[in-house]
Amino acid sequence: MSGSGTTPVGQDASGAPPRGQGPAKGPARVRPASRAPGGDSIIRQLARWGSRLDLGDAPDRVVAHLKSQILSQLGAARSGYGHPLGRRISRAYGSPLQDDPKHAVHSLSMATVCLDFDDTAYAGHLSHSTVNVPLVYASSLGLDGRQLLTSVLAANETAARITAAATLGPFRGQTAGHTHLAGAVAGRLRAEDASADIWAHALGMAFSVPTWSLSRGFFSTDAKLLVAAVPVQIGLSACDGARFGLTGPEDVLEHPQGFLHRFADIPLPEEALAGLGSLWHTETFSYKIHPGSAYTSAAVDCAVELHGALGEVDQRDITEVVVEGSIFTAGLDRIARQHRIGPDSSVAALNFSLPYNVATALLTGSLLPADLAHPAVDGPDRWELAARVRTEHDPAFSRLALLATAPLGQALRRAGERAEAWVRAIDAQAAEALPPAWLEPETDFRWATKNLGARVTVRLRDGRELRVERRGAVGAASGADGTDHAALARAKFLACGGDPEAADLVGHLDHLSPEEVRRLVNLALAGPDDDHTSGPPTDAHVTRDVRDIRKDPAMETAVLDEAYVALIAAATTAATPGDRASASQPGERDADWTLAHIALSDRLLASTARQVLAGDAAGLDNGPAMDPKAIEELTSSVDRDVLVELVRRNAAELVGLLAQTPQNQRATPVTVRLVGDKGEELFSGAVPWGEIVRLRAEDHIPGHTDRLRRTARATQES
Fold first, then answer.
1. What is the pLDDT of residue 547?
2. CA–CA distance, 398 with 418 (Å, rounded to integer)
3. Got the DSSP string for 636-668?
């Protein structure tokens, strides 16, 4: 497990198994990989959609992620070029501001990979191509800020979807170099406003020659630098050829002799096309605040916190450091320990060394790019302490990790019953941590999660133990906890030596003129020998040419969003990993009932929302969500964290549908029947859809949130 839409048969509206069907036996999901859903090839459908994509098609929250992604990637670039390894890259391959864009992006893709300081989406380390290519080409093509953002968005969505379709295979994370075939093609061709035909042939050519990385070089040498740079060059070359009439096979992804059959153990062609225009992979981003693998990030965060608690304790008084984590953390540590790691190791080897990174954070209170270079790596105290760090697998953390959207949860849900055999063949312990096979894939990523948590325990000679635990890393996608990714990205960029003016320009990127974009790129990427004075000063002169990007006004969901954010936070706090939902204490049973009821009722509301959206006669009967037998079967068959997951994804589905519903459909009459918990009828009649949504936002969900908070307090006090 380490390394870096179908509708199930026989499933009810809750997303839970039908009565009489236990959680261990899920409905079979069978979809052949020989042809994409919809008739046309996967590439043709992605090309047609991506070539027409406009920034106004994406919600504001997605655009906000684009800005954070760009700024954070610029921070990764600055830290990379500022490191001794990055300086060697610059001497060998030139500056990211050199005149030839192909050479410039080749250098930049190496610099952003070299310290493992890039950010991650559910499916892929996207930015080495999806940000780097549009940024480099922005100046020569004269892109304004909206065009640059649109190009990054199109590249993200295309690359992430194809990566997701092959994610249940030998390559994930940075080893999935094929991500950058798609990212380079889509990022450049959307910037050039190329036709869907050119897209299709360029993608067909690029995916006919995907790269296959080998762990021998990737985990312990500088060969890792090529993992994104080489496929980026292949993608750019394919663009050149397609523009002048060279052709590639459109069906290369799903063909029996094509990419997915070679690069995926379980091909998921539907992942490439699910929810185009509504399921935004861009908002699954997790943002790194330390260089290094995402599988070690939470442990480093714990160590940073423990540094303050240790105070003046000498490292020689620490007898042992135990890191407990998921199969991802334990598996990476197992691989890294196969290589000799010490002061003279490559940056790649240091990045993957959990003992070195945790020891450094414990001793210094941080983990910085400078800690991956001499003289910092020469410190004997770091290596002495690293030798006393060991890693243990905690199944509860694995359970949370596999329930989350990233890095595998969404793909496992898409695979259904096929997932268990695949996971079991890799790691039997991981298979035991799999959530129920009947959980459906997410239909909206607004509250995506990446729960790669850790617990770090420091044992001292005097018998004391200090312990810190995190559900996920700082900056990781975490559902509804209100993480300020814009603030994290800005702090990272400035800490890496970025110019504050450049950070300000990224914040206004959707309003920048081509000249201001050129100035931004020069300011952000200029080294000490680069001229970054081109372009006019910007100060308060940011272009305000904002087009009318909204077609028809949709229903306002801000209040409902906020209500669900609070609810999910309360539900997450109430869930202890591994707790059975059928808790023994009355208060906990009340919490379980509440979570199950919300999950069931939101699926019913989502069904009504689809009726309203389609213009059909709409009805709502809450009986199935109040049925004691249905609630008891659900709560007794799953863990508490599964109930929380059902609440999160069902709420996201509902809000996502409402965000697509025109404002004028608020008045649509809905035939409503409401019953109490004993089945007695409380109300029957027609209610405007907008009023139902308002009551959900202002009354029902806040009431459930308060109930969960009271239950949590009562449980703690008892």
1. 33
2. 19
3. HHSBHHHHHHHHHHHHHHHHHHHHHSBGGGGG-
